[in-house]
Amino acid sequence: QVHLVESGGGLAQAGGSLTLSCVASGDISETNSMAWFRQHPGDERDLVAISISGGATHYVEAVRGRFTISRDNTWNTVYLQMNSLKPEDTAVYYCNYKPGNYWGQGTQVTVSS
Q1: DSSP states of 73-105 as a string?
Q2: Where are the alpha helices (DSSP H) in 7-80?
Q3: Do 3 and 17 contact (CB within 8 A), yes or no?
Q4: For the segment 39-94, what is each residue's pLDDT rounded down to a tens digit?
């Protein structure tokens, strides 16, 4: 079992920044991926960015150049630095861990125009 705890959501103005954090604990694999997804009201949960142990990262087009995903040196914590925020970034953001496909509880990000 892997437990994920997210923090860092909140309210920001358009053009502002927020940083999300997610700490994984429990049965952590040496090889894993940690990712951020987001879910707009009424929509499915969509990938935002992913970090694979070893250093590879991937971003969806909507956030590329504005968001940065990073890991700490234990590879158990993932961050999402969100810059140049837009109102359409408003969503609940979820941390995801694989293997096993575990989810955090979600953290609300609201961007006002």
Answers
A1: TTSSEEEEEE-S--GGG-EEEEEEEETTTEE--
A2: none
A3: no
A4: 998 999 999 999 998 889 999 999 999 999 999 878 899 999 999 999 999 999 99
Q: Answer for the pair 34, 95: CB distance below 8 angstroms, yes or no.
A: yes
Output the CA–CA distances (angstroms, integers) from residue 21 to 33, 52, 77, 96, in the order listed.
Answer: 15, 16, 7, 12
Q: Which CA distances in Å does 57 have to 27, 69, 95?
A: 23, 7, 15
Between CA 35 and CA 103 the distance in angstroms is 10
Tokens of 27: 């049965």
Cβ atoms of 103 and 24 within 8 Å: the answer is no
Identity of the residue numbered 7: S
Chain-centre distance of CA 59, in angstroms?
11
